Amino acid sequence: MNQDSATTRLNKFISETGICSRREADRLIEQGRVKVNGDVAGMGVKVSQDDSVLVNGKPLRAKPKAVYLVYNKPIGITCTTDSAVPENIVDAVNYKARIFPIGRLDKPSSGLILLTNDGDIVNKILRAGNAHEKEYIVSMDKPITPDFVAKMGAGVPILDTVTKPCKVKKIGPKTINIILTQGLNRQIRRMAEYLGFSVTSLKRVRIMNIELGELKPGQWRYVSRAELSLINSMIGGSSSTEEASVLTQPKAARRGPLVRNAATSVSLTDQQSTSERKKASGTYKAAKPNPRHGTGKRKAASQDPRGKKGAKSSKGSLPQSNRSKRNKA
Question: Could you tell me the CA-to-CA distances from 272 to 18, 210, 219, 275, 311 in Å, in that order?
């Protein structure tokens, strides 16, 4: 069993054959169903092509040829490989071999998304630190103003950070073209909401050098050799580790926040802790102060459960964070 830098983690080695995902491979390893060179394998083991790897007593098949697809995702398709989810992207594409999407597009969004069986290229394209361009055509619920274009391009405070400067151009009365190098959770929609606009349609038309072109919704094609060659040259210096994105994105962006519309009020009871709700209803009984701990007096807490950062301003309320899925456009 090899442990040098030229080897591959066992879960990745298994998933690259196409029989399952890395997470599923981890479960197989944890259940003792994987053997390397005759021994039951443990988590974190590294292997090479010279090692004998058995899953459920059977040797792994050869690693399949890399596949890269360009897909025009229709509205309503969910970007997940979970077959239990209705209208998932894998079933929608219906490709003959196991593939998975590179990144995500929200269910109500449409347009270009790449699918592959190559995990390494996924990391290099998606990591925020690699700053690869993604282009969108976005329509709003009201006319686009010069102020809106300027503020979107300069950066908008969402998810406990300020978005990176981006290219924004008005292309219609209510429509913009926007090019991002970030991939924060529901980024464009949150940016617009902060500025008092609401997205009515969002379509991705380009990722790096790959363009949607004339593909109709629901159609897919292979990435051409010329396109793939250019992608490989563009990601040549890119990081394939999670550090590139995890260290450059705020915690709220990684968790996936809770959207708050500036025009929508939320009752105090909805945001309060259990004790605060009891106080509001009159059923709360304060604990007696412990003499050893002084008088027990404390500075009164703010009645705004969001705290100072969540307080409303003339520009609207700053979205708060919650756990959800990541890397949506």
Answer: 47, 47, 47, 8, 15
